[in-house]
Design a protein that fits this description.
- The protein has a domain of 139 residues: 3-Layer(aba) Sandwich (Rossmann fold).
- The chain is 43% helix and 19% strand.
- The protein has eight helices and nine strands.
- Strands 2-7-1-8-9 form a five-stranded parallel β-sheet, with helices on both faces.
- Helix 1 crosses helix 7.
- It is globular, with a radius of gyration of 19 Å.
- The N and C termini lie far apart (39 Å).
- 25% of the residues are buried.
- The N terminus is likely disordered.
Length: 212
């Protein structure tokens, strides 16, 4: 896909959803399709899971280092989730935006709120909804990864997460992945062309209206 990134400032695209709504699938499709988009890699204190690599899936740090990063204001957002800490390192995101690259965030509504406080002008927030709670539960069971107790916990948490849908710029009901991708492409096309993300326009228009 060709993209005109002439002096364009990148944007921060947040995808949030309850577990099982299809966010991971859509995120992978976006990263495959848009070569000028990269995934924000979070730092975490939890141990790596099988197959995960440091620097690709997460930046794995101990709690002492994480707390040091908090003190040094090195995170755009951070939170404690159960027994582990997660945070978005500031420097790589700001570097990507300045280079006209978009950064994709796979974070929940709490992280989205923190990013809004830090970088509201760069944010594009999209909430992914399932077609129904019944379909959401069916998708979770189809994974075959969780027992009934864990699925019940995920369903209870899903209701809380869904209640924050009104805090997002766009909402997509993910009934069909292809249709949802079409919606995401349209959102990106429009958001990339916002005047505030095309600073080159100031000089361009100035030359157009300059007296002969």
């Amino acid at each position: 896909m060709s993209n005109d990134s002439r002096d364009r400032r990148g944007l921060m695209l947040i995808l949030s959803s309850p577990s099982g709504a299809g966010k991971t699938t859509l995120s992978r499709r976006l990263l495959d399709e848009y070569k000028d988009m990269e995934l924000s890699v979070s730092a975490t204190t939890r141990p790596p899971r099988p197959g995960e690599k440091d620097g690709r899936d997460y930046h794995f740090v101990d709690e002492a280092r994480f707390r040091e990063m908090v003190r040094n204001d090195e995170f755009l957002e951070w939170a404690q989730v159960f027994d582990a800490y997660y945070g978005t390192p500031r420097e790589p995101v700001e570097k990507a935006l300045a280079q006209g690259r978009d950064v994709l965030f796979d974070i929940d509504w709490q992280g989205a709120q923190q990013l809004k406080q830090r970088a509201a002008n760069d944010l594009v927030k999209v909430f992914i909804l399932p077609p129904s709670l019944e379909e959401l539960e069916a998708r979770l069971r189809k994974r075959g990864q969780d027992n009934d107790e864990v699925i019940a916990e995920r369903m209870a948490r899903a209701r809380d997460e869904i209640s924050h849908w009104g805090e997002y710029h766009y909402v997509i009901v993910n009934e069909d992945v292809e249709r949802s991708m079409e919606d995401l492409r349209a959102i990106l096309a429009a958001e990339r062309r916002l005047r505030k993300r095309q600073p080159w326009l100031n000089d361009f228009v100035g030359n157009l209206i300059r007296p002969f």
